[in-house]
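Build the 3D complex.
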Amino acid sequence: EIVLTQSPATLSLSPGERATLSCRASQSINYSLAWYQQKPGQAPRLLIYDASAWATGIPARFSGSGYGTDFTLTISSLEPEDFAVYYCQQGGTWPPWTFGQGTKVEIK
Amino acid sequence: EVQLVQSGGGFVQPGGSLRLSCEASGFTFSSYWMHWVRQAPGKGLVWVSRIERDITTYADSVKGRFTISRDNAKNTLYLQLNSLRAEDTAVYYCAVGYNIPEGFFDYWGQGTLVAVSS
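Done.
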């Protein structure tokens, strides 16, 4: 089973600041990684898949990068609606499909 | 427009059973892998099961207790939950990778709560 480790657990930032979230896989998954945003009481929303491809309707301030075992989600300038929990998920080696434990981006 | 509308769920005692449903619309349901993902209260996302045509896959934690199925004529996905345990308490989501590679999920149901308690 591929284990995904996200860091940090919590990121405290102000609107307008840059957010950098990390996801590390326990073994290589090539570029088979996705990022999701989840707000309280809502289903997850796909942001990025295949490490760097935008899902439909996702603003360009969200970007993904990485390959192999190390991946990054960058939010270039935080908007008020971006404060949420972010999960990475691997689709490279399955079953099972696995998720990271999440990074909470909170308002400083 | 792709939509996944869930029903079922509720409160059940340990050892009990429930069936969850997920009605799909806006796409050719029979052509897609469908998944169930769950989220325990205050916790992260955990993949539960997948069905591809009639090929099924399960997480080890639910194997032998949960059964995923689909009725392509009704465009509906099901998850039968048997021998429920307290640790199965979670919001359950159905999900599909419609406009993206299989294995990622761009459409999700609204979620349904399963609460297992005596």
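The mean pLDDT of chain A is 97.
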